[in-house]
């Protein structure tokens, strides 16, 4: 089956429904490239009809935070079914980000309150799904149900990171959402890593090594407990 072309986000879904392969579920993730916090995977199945209330739906990365927040409740209300899976940093460190992503996508599909007739995944093939599937390159910008899943995943993760910013103050998690900004690296060098950091990521490892060097006997600041009360 050919991948969807053009800007008609419903085209591929419509073809699958016409072939009797509905409901069609889309799956996408947020936070794969972050170095702190969970990777968040969402699955979403939308009805085989136009949904004017979702006008402007697109890849979540192309939408402003305000637009994502506005679309989020509309997607949940319109969806036939949706689910969210959070994969913690410790699991990502243990099995690797790609394996964690694949397993999270499988779990998200399994958690849907319906059995999809077909699954569309963003970017790469996910084996062992409970229905036929197709990987769509840049699917979050080309297929409606994948775009919807991308918004659900992104909003869910951003809200989680904002809450974690209160649990671990001083790291700016509510601002950079756990991605590897210069300010984030500086905070880890100053305060040390937290339980939600991905220790196998090179930038976290480097910043952690610098922090440990500062804590060594004789180093400037040695013996001082890491603080988390300043940005």
Automatic annotation (TrEMBL):
Compartments where located: Cytoplasm
Reactions the enzyme catalyzes: Endonucleolytic cleavage to 5'-phosphomonoester
Domain of life: Bacteria
RNase H type-2 domain sequence ranges: 22-213
GO biological process: DNA replication, removal of RNA primer; mismatch repair
Gene3D superfamilies attached to this UniProt entry: Ribonuclease H-like superfamily/Ribonuclease H
Enzyme class at the top of the EC tree: hydrolase
EC number, UniProt record: 3.1.26.4
Cofactor dependency: Mg(2+); Mn(2+)
Swiss-Prot/TrEMBL keywords: Cytoplasm, Endonuclease, Hydrolase, Manganese, Metal-binding, Nuclease
Predominant subcellular localization, coarse grouping: cytoplasm
Binding site for a divalent metal cation: 28-29, 122
Example of a GO cellular component annotation carried by this entry: cytoplasm
Recorded GO MF terms: manganese ion binding; RNA binding; RNA-DNA hybrid ribonuclease activity
Chain's role: Endonuclease that specifically degrades the RNA of RNA-DNA hybrids.
Cited PANTHER family: RIBONUCLEASE H2 SUBUNIT A, RIBONUCLEASE HII
Family of this protein: Belongs to the RNase HII family.
Protein name, per record: Ribonuclease HII
Species, as recorded: Corynebacterium otitidis ATCC 51513
Phylogenetic placement of the source organism: Bacteria, Bacillati, Actinomycetota, Actinomycetes, Mycobacteriales
Gene of this entry: rnhB
